[in-house]
Amino acid sequence: MGFYLNMCSYIIDAMARTAGSHSQTTGPRVRAQAEALFAKHGYAAVSMRQIAAAVGVQAGALYNYFPDKQSLLFSLLHDHMTELLAAWDGQGLSNDPLTALDQFTQFHLEYHLNRKDAVFIAYMELRNLNADNFDTIETLRRRYEDQLERLIIAAQQAGQITVADTRIVTLAVIGMLTEVTTWYRQGGRLDVAQLCDMYKTLVRRTLGATQI
Fold it and tell me: CATH 1.20.120.450: does it fit domain 68-212?
């Protein structure tokens, strides 16, 4: 009897380990395939069944990870914004406001160019969030925008730039930088380092910098 009890215990433990292992690998695969499909076809055109097929699991298995498609979209956008904020918080900024603005330009371009699908979804699929989820993501977006506006205000106070409205200019700069993800291709005429240098100059000119 003891032998059979030990065998049963071993089988149960093995099943639990297998389930846990599958959970650790399937969850990220669901997110990756959903992100790719949403970016390619649009959120509204993609079903949970299509995502499941891309992952290679039954449609019902997706609900072990996300209760519905809305929660999956929200999770993708929320993680994109929180990871962006965490990455920016880890930057060591120059004490010179204009140099710090250059650092923001480079950070924003390098970070977003490596995440084109996530960026596309973050901007194009906001309209498909329900009201509460939309408010949460918008709050995170404003936090990121505030980081840039603080740098602009500091440069303005230091007499390094001249702008009429710091908020409007903040949104204009972020829009200009993010737009790069729609057309830039690796292996083209400019590498990322050259692109960043060019956009540092463009941002300085947009802000009316006294030093270009």
Answer: no
